Amino acid sequence: MLIDTHCHLDAAIFTETSTELVQAAQQKGVRYIVVPAVERANFAAVQALAHQHAEVTYALGIHPLYVPMAQDSDLAYLADQVEKSLADPQFVAIGEIGLDFFVPELCTPDMREKQRHFYEAQLKLAQRYDLPVLLHVRRSQDLILKSLRRFTGVTGIAHAFNGSHQQAQQFIDLGFALGFGGAMTFTRAKQIRRLATELDLAQIVLETDAPDIAPAWLDPKNEPDQYNRPAEIAQIAQVLAELRQADVDHIQQQTSLTALKVLPRLAQWHQQLNAG
Length: 276
Known about the structure:
Elements: E1 2-4, H1 18-27, E2 30-36, H2 43-52, E3 56-60, H3 72-85, E4 91-100, H4 109-129, E5 133-138, H5 141-150, E6 156-159, H6 165-173, E7 177-180, H7 190-198, E8 204-206, H8 233-244, H9 248-262, H10 264-275
């Protein structure tokens, strides 16, 4: 079993239908796809995708790249939608949330503060409802961690992790798993690949971030139709197996167990489907 713990299945770039994308992923052994929201405007879209496909679960949150356009009223709307979605077994997390200090427009003092305000408001929401978070961590590991220490008990996944071993261990100590995907497939990504071999599989989950972070065998810059898709996670798992000199079935099994552990509502949904 494979679990894609981070996939923007509602992205407009996909030329296939969601049914085609999900079926192609299923053929590669993908059992579940977690679809995070990025802004108030797509909350309904990710919910609708989950209700179309038993294999799709979703998270609700406001992504740091969308914070410049967001208002405090969006946080109030998020809180209302989260409370209503607690009754939905396919709702599994708060996300995608976090801090981004890579994009220059997000690095001004005012925008850094606004990002922090939205990030911590959503951590508070996760803490209130005992929900995991899907974290966007781009050039922001230390500040992400600083806030997490103030919101005890909040765990989840550090998506597309690209920090140091020390930073990785700090996330792990707080109960987080680290997400590895397409970036790991590039031979030049030495730090990511080293982490992927050194960490225990109980601390690793797999993800595509489709349609973004295309793996090494795709070339979306020169071939526009070669954007990332959830089915690619099967080959991403194979790369991890090769890096660790492990059996790919073992990689699939253990990373899926980790995903179910850090996303308890996904584990409950899995049990519900199996019981049915």
